[in-house]
Design brief:
A four-stranded mixed β-sheet has the order 2-1-3-4, with helices on one face. Strand 3 (about 55-60) and strand 4 (about 65) form a beta hairpin. It has helices at about 15-25, 45-50, 70-80, 90-115, 115-135, 150-170, 180-190, 190-195, 200-215, and strands at about 5-10, 35, 55-60, 65. It has about 220 residues and is α+β, with helices and mostly antiparallel strands. The chain has two domains: about 5-80, Glutaredoxin (3-Layer(aba) Sandwich); about 90-219, Glutathione S-transferase Yfyf (Class Pi), Chain A, domain 2 (Up-down Bundle). It binds glutathione. The site of glutathione has 12 residues, from helix 3.
Length: about 220
């Protein structure tokens, strides 16, 4: 049997969509190379492999795979342990909640980059509503989305929760996070793959990124 091709993940250090891919790779204990780029001044070669101009891109050998949800699916098909459920309907449900998370991440970014109080509050409220909605679909038995077993859905919510925690340490966001969501967040942020999914100085890099955004959140 031929060996799997080498993997290189093209990254931007504060990107939550990159981070979900890193968590999946670490959970699967797959060797990969991480290449950080500066999105404000992307290298010429990046334009050639990223049709949407976005990270992450996973280079599988010479073949670039873009879009984080697609990258997760690819990794899950090729590398054990399986992080998606086997059952088709359960899997579809998990995929749907991955999409939901991508919306929440966009809302979180809009909240953090909002220039005035109204825009900040509008996005804060929509993030708050989203987290409340999420509580209804969480497994009764914690710690993870589907219960005892860590799944692909968990890889996508961890970056969202990590950013909430960092910002809340500096400024309360009044998100009224439901208790079960908070327990899920705590379990995810304590997990080794999640802790190792960002660079060592992530918090200060993320704060510097926020300062550059110059949003209402820091006022
Ligand atoms: N749908 C994409 C979203 C990725 C994304 O928005 N990446 C951001 C960084 S976090 C990016 O590359 N932005 C560059 C740009 O939009 O020009 C995915 O899931 O991979």
């Amino acid at each position: 049997m031929s060996a799997n091709p080498s993997l290189e993940l093209i990254s931007f250090k504060v990107c939550p969509f990159v981070q979900r891919s890193v968590i999946a790779l670490l959970e699967k204990q797959v060797d990969f190379k991480l290449t950080h780029i500066d999105l404000s001044d992307p290298p010429e070669w990046f334009k050639g492999i990223s049709p949407l101009g976005k990270v992450p891109v996973l280079k599988v050998g010479e073949q670039p795979v873009f879009e984080s949800a697609v990258i997760l699916e690819y990794l899950d098909e090729v590398y054990a342990p399986k992080l998606h459920p086997d059952d088709a309907l359960e899997k579809a449900t998990h995929r749907a909640w991955v999409e939901f998370c991508s919306e929440l991440i966009t809302t979180q970014f809009k909240m953090l980059s909002a220039k005035d109080k109204d825009a900040f509050e509008e996005n804060r409220n929509s993030l708050k509503e989203g987290l409340k909605r999420l509580e209804d679909v969480l497994a009764e038995e914690a710690p993870f989305f589907a219960g005892e077993k860590f799944s692909l859905v968990d890889t996508v919510y961890a970056p969202l929760f990590m950013r909430i925690k960092i910002v809340e340490a500096m400024r309360p966001l009044a998100l009224d996070i439901p208790e079960r969501i908070q327990m899920w967040s705590d379990a995810l942020l304590a997990r080794e793959s999640v802790q190792n999914s960002v660079v060592d100085d992530f918090e200060s890099i993320f704060m510097a990124f926020l300062k550059k955004l110059d949003g209402y959140v820091l006022k």
